[in-house]
Design a protein that fits this description.
36% of the residues lie in helices and 3% in strands. With 183 residues, it is mostly helical. A two-stranded antiparallel ribbon has the order 1-2. It starts with a helix and ends in a 26-residue tail after the last strand.
Length: 183
């Protein structure tokens, strides 16, 4: 390309380039779908509950209260006793070695605190994060009771929930020594 031709093209392109609106440095460029989440919602959803209980909120719940909350907010997807429905079953202690093995709370989950964290953040499916801490402790107690992990008189809170020993706790190969449960 000759220099004269290059200068001619540059002269024509310069006005087109300069007419393009500049994006402010502080403006997020994206697909412009939805709206930014309020900081309170981000904070509420970004907390984590660890196996040792760090991050658990204040509150408490027992098996009987959990039975009531479960019937009202969980049974439509998981069945009245967690035996299954559109949301799958939660109860079962069958082996995980067969071709039809199904992972349930009773035979797979290694920590009760993980169950609490999942329910607190993601359930019920039609209104995730809508359960109070008390309702979540209660539902957790009820689901653990259905799986014969706790007795029917059990009350769970931030102190007692991490003490619950899940049946498959030793069934995992841990990738690091930090937080490794005792066998």
């Amino acid at each position: 390309m000759s220099i004269a031709r290059f200068l001619c093209l540059a002269a024509l392109a310069l006005p087109a380039i300069s007419a393009t609106p500049a994006v402010a440095a502080d403006r997020v460029v994206g697909p412009m779908l939805g709206k930014a989440a309020p900081s309170e919602l981000v904070t509420a959803r970004s907390s984590s509950v660890y196996p040792d209980g760090r991050g658990l909120p204040q509150g408490r719940g027992d098996v009987e209260s959990g039975r009531v909350v479960f019937k009202e907010k969980c049974a439509s997807c998981h069945g009245p006793a967690g035996e299954g429905g559109p949301g799958g079953h939660l109860v079962g202690r069958g082996p995980l070695t067969g071709p039809d093995a199904d992972k349930t709370v009773g035979n797979y989950w290694p920590f009760a605190t993980t169950l609490f964290d999942f329910v607190y953040r993601a359930m019920p499916m039609n209104a995730p994060g809508s359960l109070t801490a008390d309702e979540t402790y209660a539902v957790t107690a009820f689901v653990l009771f259905l799986n014969s992990v706790v007795d029917g008189q059990r009350t769970l809170d931030a102190r007692t929930l991490p003490q619950v020993r899940m049946p498959n706790r030793a069934g995992f190969v841990w990738i690091d020594a930090i937080g490794q449960p005792e066998p």
